[in-house]
């Protein structure tokens, strides 16, 4: 089993992320649990992404930068980082998302308690400075993936003892990867605390519900190998969950700066 001197390996794919990647890396550097390595793979960006990472890297030898010679897409880019990861625990953070400072601390405690796969709650942050909290279930197994993916990729981490799971280029790469990870481990432990912020944009894959629904169906039939009837049940569950998320966003979105503003008045 390939393990190095660091407990956590953090996988970060990057493409034209010069405006956000510095903040993402800083959120890793600010972790209370400091035993980590960060592997950034620049997927042949046309902007200054690599320059931003290189500048930060000069003062932090825990950061590795790999430059792709052409654009491979997010799945192969993550796999390239995984191939270079040496930590016992594998975690994921995209170049426009951020972690809370206690993210790895919470997860390390869960791993020490016996968990093999750990995930947590997170915030979906919108352009209008509002956010929606997505709460993690305390415990899940592979059956829930028929209906939806309960693991926010930026909050997920797993012990490499179950085997390193590469991503397939099937659009819902995260979905299929976490399904396979939980299938191998039998269950995953959810942490109620918020572990990070996921930035939602109008062009993100998660914002295109029609494409996401199509990809979900393809995973049910082509990857999970479900029958037509089983896939239909799963797809209906996916649709209901999507509607519930949208409705809860309307009723529960909160000004992301409201608590800071109100606390400053006290």
Report the span from N to C terminus.
53 Å
Broad structural category:
alpha/beta
DSSP strand count: 11
Percentage of residues assigned to helices: 25-40%
Specify the overall morphology: globular
The largest β sheet comes out as: 11 strands, mixed
The number of domains is 2
Radius of gyration, in Å, reads 18 Å
Unreliable stretches covering 5 or more consecutive residues: 255-266
What is the H/E order? EHEHEHEEHEEEEHEHHEH
Range of strand content: 15-25%
> How confident overall, as mean pLDDT?
89
Summed up, the helix count is 8
What does this structure look like?
Mean pLDDT is 89; it is low at 255-266. Helix content is 38%, strand content 22%. It has helices at 21-29, 49-57, 74-84, 103-112, 173-185, 209-223, 228-252, 258-265, and strands spanning 8-14, 36-42, 63-67, 89-92, 98-99, 117-125, 130-134, 139-140, 157-159, 188-199, 254-255. The radius of gyration is 18 Å and the shape is globular. By secondary structure, it is α/β, with parallel strands linked by helices. Strands 1, 2, 3, 4, 5, 6, 7, 8, 9, 10 and 11 form an 11-stranded mixed beta sheet that branches. The chain contains 8 helices and 11 strands.
